[in-house]
Specification:
The protein is mainly alpha-helical and 165 residues long. It has one domain: yst0336 like fold (Orthogonal Bundle). 57% of the residues lie in helices and 6% in strands. It contains seven helices and two strands. Strands 1-2 form a two-stranded antiparallel ribbon. α1 packs across α2. The relative contact order is 0.14. It holds the Pfam family PBDC1. This is Polysaccharide biosynthesis domain-containing protein. InterPro entries: PBDC1-like_dom_sf (IPR023139), PBDC1_metazoa/fungi (IPR008476), Polysacc_synth_dom (IPR021148).
């Protein structure tokens, strides 16, 4: 992905400054386009690593957090009506969805590392990360949905197509 060249272009000092900047609280910044670009790079790198992981390791054996079982159980109880095979934007972004997701996510504060970091999430499990197939979600939303997809066998298509198994 382009993230590698973007980070490399910063040089060692720039990369250290970027890492420091990303560790500061959000209220320390306004809408700084440079910071937004750094977050986009970080989210893109996370997406690439995750997709490579489910492409090379059978997803049903993956453990994404130390609380996978709890996340899975609570997600399945709270969001029975969401089709996680092919998500719709409204499943995460509508006002009603936000009201349902907020308490779900907040219960993992201090439990799931970086629970509210911005993360890229695929809408359709059978497709790669593309502009059309990607939505912005919090890290705990990503984990809840991807743990369920892995356990329910919905990421198997990616694994089988990439590993030719």
């Amino acid at each position: 992905m382009a993230a590698d060249s973007a980070l490399a272009s910063l040089g060692p000092e720039g990369a250290m400054a970027a890492a420091h900047a990303l560790s500061l609280p959000a209220d320390a910044y306004g809408n700084d386009p440079r910071l937004e670009a750094m977050w986009a790079i970080k989210a893109s790198e996370h997406a690439e690593v995750y997709f490579n992981l489910i492409s090379s390791v059978d997803p049903k054996f993956l453990k994404l957090t130390k609380v996978d079982d709890n996340l899975y159980t609570l997600f399945k109880e709270t969001f029975k009506d969401i089709d996680i095979k092919i998500l719709k934007t409204e499943d995460l972004k509508s006002n009603e969805a936000k009201e349902r997701w907020r308490p779900f996510c907040n219960q993992f504060e201090g439990i799931v590392e970086d629970f509210n970091y911005g993360t890229l999430l695929r809408l359709d499990t059978e497709k790669e990360y593309t502009e059309e197939n990607t939505i912005f979600a919090t890290r705990v939303q990503f984990y809840a949905i991807e743990i369920a997809r892995n356990r329910d066998g919905l990421n198997d298509a990616v694994f089988k197509s990439k590993s030719n198994r």
